[in-house]
Amino acid sequence: MEPAPHRPARRRLLTGAAALAASAALTPLAAASTAAAPHRHTPPGGAYPPVHWVPANRANFTAADRPARYPVERVVVHVTQETYPDTLKLFQDPAHKAAAHYVVRSADGHIAQCVRERDVAWHAGNWNYNTRSIGIEHEGWIDDPTWFTDPLYTQSALLTAAICDRYGIPRDREHIIGHVEVPGTDHTDPGEFWDWARYLQLVNEVSWQHPEDPVRRHDGRSAGVRIPDTSGS
């Protein structure tokens, strides 16, 4: 069940086996979306778009060796139902038992990486989907599209494009899905206001030559170029 319109409530983030419920008050949009994340070093190997490494507690993900152990086949789009800083705090709480690989801030598209891509983040509420996907959280509430800003769409799409190139994931709606589409979930994010047509267009417009040089795509297919590694070492 989603919160009543314009009355945001903390979203229940699911592990592969259980759901935890909590509640929190909404802070003002301007202050919340511009609050700085804790300063951390960039994950080993570098990343593009630039990210801050804000590690989740080890109790909120499973260490793994992907894609050797599990193939990475999908990107799952989430909406936090929390502010950006509060989401990071939740992922660092060992009692929370959930985390996503990335969190994108609304105001400027700033990205925090919380779980290395090689590890299994507990984000989808379905163990099979957890093992075979990358989870990206987006700051905001599903019933308020003002949180889905141009920078948020743009930076998230750049990140998803890099992930798709890295693992050979097709850039389509079968493989880039919402949390609502995960079997067994009771979530509805990213919700009706998430602009899928715009997002997929942005994802399909870029590919990577090296970490600082995204190039425009015109054929809608993977260009097979080298991309940065945010999976860690």
Q: CATH superfamily membership, which one?
A: Peptidoglycan recognition protein-like
Note the gap between the termini: 39 Å
Summed up, the domain count is 1
Tell me the strand order in the biggest sheet: 1-5-4-7-3-8
Report the top-level CATH class. Alpha Beta
Taking all residues together, what is the mean pLDDT? 78
Order of helices and strands: HEEEHEEEHEHEHEE
User: How many strands appear in the DSSP assignment?
Assistant: 10
Helical segment tally? 5
Poorly predicted ranges: 1-47, 216-229
Helix content: 10-25%
Oligomer designation: single chain
Structural class: alpha/beta
Rg estimate, integer Å: 16 Å
What do we call the CATH topology?
Answer: Lysozyme-like
Hey, roughly how much beta strand do the residues contain? 15-25%
Q: Main sheet? A: 6 strands, mixed
Shape assignment: globular
The second-level CATH architecture is 3-Layer(aba) Sandwich
